[in-house]
Amino acid sequence: MMHKATRIDLFSFGTPQMRAFHLTWMAFFVCFFGWFACAPLMPVIKGEFGLTKDQIANINIAAVAVTILVRLIIGPMCDRFGPRKAYTGLLLLGALPVIGVAFSQSYEAFLFFRLAIGAIGASFVITQFHTSVMFAPNVVGTANATAAGWGNLGGGMAQTLMPLILAAIVLMGVEQSLGWRIALVVPGVLMVIMSFFYWRYTQDCPEGNYTELRASGELVSSGKREGLQSFKLAASNYRVWLLFLTYGACFGVEIFIHNMAALYYVDKFGLSLKAAGFAAGSFGLLALFARAMGGLFSDRVAQKRGLNGRTALLFALIVGEGVGLLCFSLMDSAALAVVAMLVFGLFTHMACGATYALVPFIDRKALGGVAGIIGAGGNVGAVAAGFLMKGTATAQECLFILSIFVISTAVCALLVRFSAEAHSNERKAFEDAQAQREAEAGKQGLPGEAVAA
Fold it and tell me: Per the confidence metrics, is the pTM higher than 0.90?
């Protein structure tokens, strides 16, 4: 019988845990690249369709709205069918609207495909589910945050690379009105390719795939209603809804910035499409390390302060995010705005990582439901920010008000409490994982601390 991994061997593909780790962040990267591929090209698309401010706001809302529903569904589907089937299906079905948006001929058609593309934002929930079942308590926060952070990097890379892909296509003699359409086909094709690798090289958990494990009796199944039961159990836990709000305050702000940053830098500061893409992309590039830092710090704090330490860290990070966002909203020069954006972006990504470092400990019997509901909270936050943008006179005013909401939401993190029994159980699981890790290190002739974290 295999066990959850107690360490992360970054350069290894030799175990099911590490294959799942690498392929799940790669799949997440491709999905987020496709999800945000339209955003840096919006200045071009705006001219193509003659879009108004309200229409652009509608498009940004559509891009994240449907993800709320799909995230609520996909979590319990992971409990029922396993992350391997869920991810493969999402990649294949999600590729259709990603490619389809390139063929839109009107605002209404573009809005429809942008709405449908939002479904691939649910990829995050599967990523967090898959790493949660593969890694032990001593490293699960780091594993969750690192996989999510590297996957989130797809959003930042889309901001930077899509204008360059368009420029390369135009240099080959293609008209810009056709070039942006060709550019948007690229992420859809990548998703189809990724679906093959995920199906071929991953398994649902360390012991194997859910279907075979249930057939052999190694995994107890509660039947076809298993996914629904997972959702109901998660929905009845007050801690889930508190983290739903905190995730709306951090990830909701993150995807809102992804969708509006390039256009904001063009309209507010007069930057070129390429310069605005690099400025907006720098926010997403923080995901390369910042989200992982949030999970790593959460694991380290938990060594001394347990679960309450994880919640206190999340509170501090969201307060830092809100203060940074407040400063960003007040900047009147492009250079200072980029600096402020990077500061608040660092706290934002770390808060996202710290949130999902808590998720595996909320309710192990309903992991998919917990991950799905909290993940949906991020999109609710983004949709709320989108409506706030529609109701304010300027983007700066929207960002200022949003910062106040973020700071207020930080209190929710402190309200997440655990029973003495839960603390005791998690402490034992944590210590058992550490002991297992040290035993494995001893067999390899390495000191415990020398093993990759």
Answer: no
